[in-house]
Amino acid sequence: MKKSTFLSGVFGIVCALATHGQNTFPPVGNAGIGTLNPQAHLDLIVNGNSPNTYSGFRLTTPSILSTTSPLTTAFQIRRSGFSNSFYSLFVVKPNGNIGIGVEPNDPLLASRRLVVTDNNVNKVDLNVKGFALVDGQSASVLFGGTGGEQYGQWGIEYNQYATTPGLNFWKPAGSNNFGNYYMFMADNGKISMGLDPNNTATYNGDYRLYVKDGIMTEKVKVAVHTTNDWADYVFKKDYSLMPLNEVERFISQNGHLPNIPSAENIMNEGIDIAKMDAKLLEKIEELTLYIIEQDKRIAELENQSKND
């Protein structure tokens, strides 16, 4: 009898403290922490005015919690299914790794800090509204690990230590054709393919795109900024057409046509396609004028021959 009275007293004190602390734990219905009017099965409301408030919810697991058993979890939210089955919605493993939409025994949770999936390849697994920052030394976004590759088939990283810093599109170890700088977008806005940004000669010049080993394309369109950039000036009346004997003398002395760069210049400076096409057209138009002039002379000689 005395024991029963003592226990009743203790229970009364606990209930009084719980009520005073704005907590309620009824035998039936919703339970509340920080509220006397819980609206969920367990309703936790944090008083933000309290200087001793460190966390709204904290779960401490024992240090002996197994980190080797694939089914052991530190925390899990799951949904019930048919035939007493359950589906994991959110799980925290003892090693701190987190899974969303994966079962506790998923092998990825042994080595991946965060695994997110709905097991449907036709749906978006992660949607970030606003900015997403991938930071840290050699931090990369990796793609294409469906074949079991540890780091996937492609990586994108910001290389701040290159001579010309920028964004590196690379192939990680274990992928097909491991290597760096398949494409590199430099901080200065220039883009290279297959070239090392640590080589100071990579970005010499005023061009936006640098490609190693060449380009194959079905179509190229080169913009001409003004009509003066094209060679129609050859057909203007004030154009000074070089006499053929002077052309012959120039070729003999220099080994190339007038107003056309030499092979040595091409090797050192490359070719501007638009300018070179204009120069080649210039020579075609000059050649046309030479032929017209020669045709007139031939016609004149024929007339003289007939008169004689």
TrEMBL record:
Domain of life (superkingdom): Bacteria
Protein name per its UniProtKB record: Uncharacterized protein
Organism: Wandonia haliotis
